[in-house]
Amino acid sequence: MLENTLRNRLYQVARRFRQRQYWWNVAVIALVIAIVGALMLPSVTSGQMDAKSTAIVLFAAAVVMSLIALVITARSYRNPARIAKAVETKYPTLQQRLITAVSVSDNPELRSGYLQQQVIREACDHSQQYAWTETVPRGQVLLSRLSGIGAVALMLGVLGIMVFETEPAQALLANNPHELLNDVTVSPGDTEVERGTNLLVTARFNGEFESLVPSEGELRVVLRDGSESRLPMKQNLLDPVLGGLVVSVGESFGYQVVTPNWASPMYSVEVFEYPSLVRSDASIRYPSYTKIDDKTIEDTRRVSAVEGTTLVWKFLLNKPVASATLLNQQGESVALNLNDDGATAESNEMVLKDSQRYTLELIDDQGRANKYPPELIVRTLPNQQPKLKTTAAGDVRVSPLEELTVTAESEDDFGIEKMGLTYTFVGNTQEVVLASDVGRTRKLSVEHLIEFESLKAEPDQLLTYYFWAEDVGPDGNPRRTQGDMYFAEVRPFEEIFREGDPPPGGQPSQPSENEQEAEKVAQSQKEIIGATWQVLRDGITSEFKSDVNLIAEAQQEQIEALDTLAENLQDEESLQYVSVARDAMETAVEELDAAESDDLEAHGRALAAEQLSYEGLLKLRAREFEVTRSQQQSQSSSSSSSAQQRQQQLNDLELEQDENRYETENQAQQNSAEEQQERETRQVLSRLRELAKRQEDINEQVAQLQSALEMAEDEKATEEIERQLKRLRDQQQEMLREIDELDERMQSPENQSSMQEESEQLTQTRENVREASEALQQNDASKALSAGKRAERELESMRDEFRERAAGQFNDAVREMRDAASELDERQQELAEQLQQQQNEPSPGLRAGTEQKELDQQIQSQRDRLRDLQEKMQETVEQAETAEPLLAESLYDSFRQTQQRQVDSRLEETSELLRNGFGEEAMQAETQANEGIRELKEGLQKAADSVLGDESEALRRAASELEQLSRDLEEEIREANAGEPGQSNSSEPRERGQQGDRQQESRQQEGEGQEGGPQGGEQSGERQQEDGSPGDPQSGETPSGQRSPGEPQDGQSQRGGDQRGDGQPGEGESTGSRSGENENEQAEPTAQSGQNPGEGQGQSTRQSPEEPNGQNQQGTESRNNAASRNSSASRSRNAANGPSSSPISGDGFREWTDQLRDVEEMVDDPEIRSRAARIRDRARDVRADLIRHAKAPQWDMVEEMIAKPLRELQRDVQEEWLRRSAEKNALVPIDRDPVPSEYSDAVRRYYERLGSGQ
To answer: Does the pTM exceed 0.85?
Structure first.
């Protein structure tokens, strides 16, 4: 009985728990349904969803979830112990009686005891005294019930709104479809679109339907063949507009906008195409003299051919056109012949005379013109004259019995027909053919022996000679190129040189006054002969008459000088010689006067008369004279030609007076042609490297798409892959254009002889690239990949050849070893730090064993890297013993020192000691290994410097080049923004700030150079010359007005930059001043015999040597010779101050990018090279957009994407140079990391306060 009472009391408490839980569940369910219904109201209101059906579904869902909640609640709170525990918590006075009673009542065996019955009785008594149902307060039950009822009411309200309030709107849509048609605007309606473009279709709801816009609809697209597709249309935010997009329209179709309660009429879309060029082929017929077979270059827009070549363009168009025209730069149009189908066109035969750029203009039958007219470039190469170079010839004095050997070299672009020698002796001219029918661009060396004994030569006779070469000119007729004329004077056989006593002071004995005057007249006559020969060789030019007049005046002055000499002569034989020479001079003047009427034959007769007069003057020389060798031969007062010619004979005498053996050592000047060739090689190498990389990337993508195409399961995936193949085809086409441009560069006159074989190989590579492009157009990925792989291999092969040509045989190997040694040293430093950390902070337990095992593995890896490096060093030493003995010796010394230090054994010892727990001893062994590796690194760095050159010098030149590039670009941006209102010229103050920084660095380095010795002075001089900063009037003077280390002191003269100040290591004159002097010297008119442009006998220019500390700078110079030349070229371009020379929008783009390529080739740092390449790629993209769209670039984007990264690159290169040269330039900041952007404003404010004294 007691047990039943107790269970009844507990049941009442559990029921309270269930009621509270159930109503809370009902409240949650009703709220969820109400929220879902509220979210669905817009769709129901717009008619997309049926109101009643939606409301019924939501109500049914609420009922079902409520029933589920009821069942779950009824099955809960069934455990009496849990309820008893809750009651005990509410009433602590029970003191565990209720829990004990429940447990006793559940066990029948324990229920019969007295104590158990007593506990149950006391629990029942307590339930009568206290209301256990208050364990769940009545307020909580009431609150849950009200919440549930309120939530149900809210749910019913939302459902009611959904049912009753949306019916009028839906009825309006259903009952007024025609009215809706007038209030909905479908755009674009019936229209025409270009093939391949996207079409946007919109439906705008107006008027009272504006609030009834469905959130979604469909765009029904019906093709001409009846096939149909549906595209989704969505509402744009809250606008009463539905929009859908048809991607890449390929054919005409009809479309209709469809919603659940409305559909638009059917509209039509017609597809058209602008006329465009699909492919252009060039048929080339070379002149017969070139001996080159006719050829057709497929799919090209750039042609290079020699003048006289017949060119026919053939064009394949995308559609029939009404007219096709080529428009050249002068505005002249050339009509093309259209075939019957109208989709192919062909030009008439064009004989190449000048280089031209044509624009292809197309117009179809609807009057539409091509949007982006393609540009066709025709570069006409000149038929160059043969290049003649005399290798063993000159003005000499010979005996009557002597045999004179003369040699010369020649080469021609299309072959030499004949080559020979012409000499004139005693008025008789003899022509000797030495070679004939020489192959194209083949160098030919000829040699001839002139036997004066067989000519029966007599003393004081004259023989003149010159080499010549014949090729075929542009007109198809033989063309002769003649070299310089040289003189061979027959000296008296009994001419005696004997030693005399030197006069006081060591000065040489002076010849007689008549002898001096005769020598002067003879030398002047020789110069007149040379000038006459030069004019005769050049032929009829615009300056022919003026040159002949000058020569005639000079010859007349010679007659007057000879008359003056004759007044002082009394010897009859001498007067007879004067008479003969004077008569010949008068004859020459008469013939020169006759030659003013463009008579070259008269000019030749004048030359013969001049030679006869010179031969007469030779007989005036003394037969026997006395010579004394002085201490200073170079300062002899007699500077006559005969004295110079006799110098060889004088040197053969064994004079008793000791000669001055102190000589001035001058550094060899590099030939400007070789520098240009090296630069061209680097430019070609840079382009080949880029093309090979791009072809490799394209091949990888084609391979991936080929696999994807084989695995494609539906048509949609196949179409996507084909679109990607089309994109790759465009990239392949772009590569084809760049290969044509590179081939044009390789066929230029300056590269034709040295790159002929590579040009032919590039032509084959181009064919492979073209085949890959055609295969991609046909979606044949397999064939495209095969052709692309062949092109990739050929490009890589050519790249390797040019890399060896540009960098040398061992440059790459030495660079790899140097980098490996640097990495080895870095890893060793990390090992040392880990060992030190392990000793200072030992790890307990298993972790210590794991760390020791990792260290041991790292040491073993270090040993493997060291052994690999030593093997590479040993292999390089064996290969370089013959070609580079100095490199082999340097590498062997480093290898031997590493072996002597037993670095590998020390590493092994470190590992062994570490495994046995001898930490300190392991650190000692590691320290010895560390020192050996550091010495190995330093040795390899010295070896690399001997081959590659000093990298700090390369960085300095690169920084100077980047500064000039940045200045050119900022100048263009500043000029472009000058006319735009509201544009602040932010680059100008930034540039002035940079220039101020450069001036400050220049002053700092100058002071360091004065303290640190010659090196600093030399760097200061070079820095001022290269930078050309504003505010530096002279490169020899710093901005502060102090004298630079290389400036000549007072009373000390310098000429041409070759002579240095006393004790001053720098250069006294800037590069620009020296260049100006050289140009003036070359431009100065003289009467000496000139030279043919093709002979390679130009005047030498003086340049300042830039090889610091006498180190071997071969590698650095090969990378950096173009720096000063490009800088001056950029300055000249800026001096023009015209838009045509702008680096982005003008004709200076190619030169600007070439300079940026030079920067890439100057440095070895991959990051710097990569950043420079990215800047160049961005500039190329901007340039391509400029050409494609014919509108000005977005200069803000140019500033952000090109100019700013270029300035940052220049700053980083400058800082890297300062770090590298820190050991040579004291007191330079080593750590100059840029301030993070988030702290830049704070740092700027700090310095402002610091400067203001706050």
So the answer is: no
